[in-house]
Design a protein that fits this description.
Blueprint (H helix, E strand, L loop, with lengths): L14 E3 L2 E3 L6 E5 L6 E6 L3 H20 L2 H17 L1 H12 L3 H22 L5 E4 L6 E8 L2 E5 L7 H13 L3 E4 L5 H13 L7 E3 L5 H9 L4 E7 L2 H13 L3 E5 L4 E5 L5 H13 L9 E7 H16 L19 H16 L3 E4 L14 E4 L16 E7 L2 H9 L6 E5 L3 H10 L4 E4 L18 E2 L4 H6 L2 E8 L2
Parallel strand pairs: 7-8, 7-10, 8-9, 10-11, 12-13, 12-17, 13-16, 15-16, 17-18
Antiparallel strand pairs: 1-2, 3-4, 5-6, 6-20, 11-19, 14-15
Bound molecules: adenosine-5'-diphosphate.
Length: 485
């Protein structure tokens, strides 16, 4: 597709296996749709089981050399990737907007966030420090060394097509692992552009491989059943996460899972209302709500509730909805038709149970997949929108009376990814933060994502952490050496 920005190279449309982009024998293609128009943008090669195994061959062949590459050299290559990616920020943002539908502002932010993982893990690659201890008996020493775990399969979703890829590739490479990236079939172009940027920035052949698959089940299953593969890192739905954990069980593959969320956003009545609204806009509307960290349920204490709803309606109602690629757009398209149908279903269910639509509330007609910013007030317990991720620009708001009630409601979900709390009393907020069952909670902030922080969930939101030093250790094995010394 043309982006209006001079392309540094044509976006590859094949599969990256070893040192080349190849077009598999069968010649099957996956059509990439522009969610803002419903039109086809282009098509990419569709990989099968044989291509998956060829990618494992390439990753396995490159593994020993990459693991033996000096940490400083690995760091230099990752830093080169950071600079190369930032040099193409505008071009990559346009690709993201075109294939994902998100507003350009969101897309630019994503590119910067995505590139940050290269910089962070360039800095971490030279800090994979082990441990030395004296055994309690005094008889020997305990040495612990962190070694690369081996070939990694990285499966990513469509909502952050750049950042979800780099969040996995960067720590894998820093640790000394080679990998196979399997991007979402809706948004492979961004990942393919990033993979090509990495290749040109000096990542050796076979260290990063990329396959697409319109039928990902059999291809990923074959890869996971190959004993040379030792790591699976997946970001996507809890449903697919469960399937992959079962697949990974057969070969006992170390698995990191970033799954669904159902983030509560709690506003206590002593909160700074302006700050809470600003935070709500970020937590709800970043990426038009298509984020697993997106605020899904707003619990607002009764004393501040009506003013909060009024202000939220005002701010959400002022957002410009349109094709991501248009400069004025603040809320872009949803990924596909199923997505807007799901949002419509959740809104209809909430309304049928007594919620009031204060803004929006119905998918927009037309060829693109647009849903307007929407606010539902007085959402009743038992509404599906409180249990399922809406993954769109809909805020469901409910009042509560005391903090104990808010905590109980916030924890009444199988998910436990992100949460948000607003209060002027830091002690109160910290107390709530400790008691919410989640992997990440923001106090008086609407954003948790940071390459330097451990991102991940508890309960059925996932296993393991990405980002920070924690993210590096997911790609390492602790080797214990007992020394008689
Ligand atoms: P979403 O609901 O956000 O589209 P999914 O969990 O369906 O999320 O998809 C996330 C990623 O998982 C995508 O890359 C998709 O191709 C991949 N995927 C879906 N089903 C399977 C499967 N059975 N095995 C391996 N990967 C899968």
């Amino acid at each position: 597709p043309t982006t209006g920005i001079p392309a540094p190279f044509p976006i590859p449309t094949g599969l990256l296996i070893g040192d080349a982009w190849i077009d598999p024998a069968g010649g099957k293609r996956i059509e990439i749709i522009n969610p803002s128009t419903g039109d086809m943008l282009t098509s990419v090669a569709d990989g099968g089981v044989g291509d998956g195994i060829a990618a494992v061959d390439a990753a396995a062949a490159a593994a020993a050399d990459w693991a033996a590459t000096a940490p400083r050299k690995r760091a230099d290559i990752l830093m080169a990737c950071f600079h190369a990616m930032m040099a193409q920020q505008e071009w990559l943002a346009q690709i993201i907007s075109l294939e994902n539908g998100k507003a350009l502002g969101d897309a630019r932010g994503e590119v910067a966030y995505a590139a940050e993982f290269f910089r962070w893990y360039a800095e971490e690659a030279v800090r994979i420090n082990g441990e030395v201890a004296i055994a309690p008996s005094g008889a020997n020493r305990i040495l612990v060394q962190y070694q690369p775990i081996g070939v990694a399969l990285l499966i990513t979703p469509w909502n952050f097509p750049a950042a979800m890829a780099t969040r996995k590739i960067a720590p894998a490479l820093a640790a000394g692992c080679t990998c196979i990236l399997k991007p979402a079939e809706e948004t492979p172009l961004t990942a393919m552009a990033v993979a090509e940027i990495m290749r040109r920035a000096g990542v050796p052949a076979g260290v990063v491989n990329l396959i697409n698959a319109s039928d990902p089940g059999p291809v990923c299953s074959a890869i996971l059943h190959d004993p040379r593969v030792r790591k699976l890192s997946f970001t996507g739905s809890t449903e697919v996460g469960r399937i992959l954990l079962r697949e990974a069980a057969d070969t006992v593959i170390s698995s990191s899972m970033e799954l669904g969320g159902n983030a509560p956003f709690i506003v206590l009545d002593d909160a700074d209302l302006d700050a809470a609204i600003d935070g709500a806009m970020v937590a709800k509307m970043r990426n038009a709500g298509e984020a697993c960290t997106a605020a899904n349920r707003f619990y607002v204490q009764r004393g501040i509730h009506d003013r909060f709803v009024e202000r939220l309606v005002e701010r959400m109602g002022a957002l410009a909805v349109g094709p991501g690629i248009d400069a004025a757009t603040q809320c872009g398209a949803m990924i596909n038709r199923q997505s807007i149908e799901k949002i419509d279903r959740l809104v209809a269910d909430a309304v049928q149970r007594g919620a009031q639509i204060r803004l929006g509330g119905r998918a927009l007609a037309g060829a693109g997949f647009f849903y307007p910013p929407s606010v539902l007030a007085n959402v009743r317990q038992g509404s599906a929108i409180l249990d399922e991720e809406v993954f769109g620009p809909v805020a469901a708001v409910l009042p509560f009376d005391d903090a104990e009630e808010a905590i109980r409601l916030a924890n009444a979900t199988e998910y436990g990814l992100a949460a948000y709390v607003y209060s002027a009393d830091l002690k109160r907020a910290l107390n709530i933060a400790e008691r919410i069952e989640c992997g990440m909670i923001a106090i008086n902030r609407g954003l948790v994502s940071d390459a330097a922080a451990p991102f991940g969930g508890v309960k059925q939101s996932g296993l393991g952490r990405e980002g920070a030093h924690h993210g590096l250790l997911e790609y390492c094995e602790a080797k214990y050496i007992a020394v008689d010394w």
